[in-house]
């Protein structure tokens, strides 16, 4: 059956090729009839021309000639790469009014402005930057970034519903923590808890919370606390920084570590129940 189909296909292909050859030969003979009236001369010439064109197209590859590219000089390359004087990438003037519109309070604006200026002067300009260069562009850029972040935080605070925050969210949060403490106190024993010191009570509660997987990750170890604060500050900076700074890995990582290590960790240590505020201040003064 397959052999019969193959023979039929060959016959059909032969018919098709014969028709095409006949059409091509007839067309060439027709054009040759304008030069010679002899049909016996035109027909062989047509067959020869068609066969020759067939062989030529099968054996010879035709390509379009590519024009040689004129090599550019180094100076012409530099001219194309040269920045114009008005290029936006050369403009570093910060927008000082955007953050003020978000705060919308002249008294608060003046207080924040004065506070940030003193911080930059004491910890940036006078501490190390002034010894490098008298230029003020870098402090102004840092000031603009800080002000934009403060303005973004201020705008988000204004959107908070204080009634729901004070009467629902905070109460629910405190209630959940009290329920958690009471459950673990009952598991340990009220009488046992009364005989333990403050440090022993904390350790016993920590052990029970770890066993029930209810202990906050920041309380596992100092390294865990640092990692949690680092991730939280990374999320905060992603929201409050301008898109240009937030998408810059260097700015984002430096700002995150400064905020984590120099701001949030000291604040958390100062607010820790096991930390004496006076002792903490004495330690900071001695460190300075």
UniProtKB/TrEMBL annotation:
Question: Has the keyword Secreted been applied to this entry?
Answer: no
From the broadest rank down, the organism's phylogenetic lineage runs: Eukaryota, Viridiplantae, Streptophyta, Embryophyta, Tracheophyta
Quick one: a GO cellular component term?
Answer: cytoplasm
Q: Where is this protein primarily located?
A: cytoplasm
Species for this entry: Morus notabilis
Q: Where in the cell is it found?
A: Cytoplasm
Task: Tell me which Pfam families the record gives.
Answer: PXA
Q: Which residues cross the membrane?
A: 16-33
Q: Which residues form the PXA domain?
A: 105-285
Q: What is this protein called?
A: PXA domain-containing protein
Keyword tags: Cytoplasm, Membrane, Transmembrane, Transmembrane helix
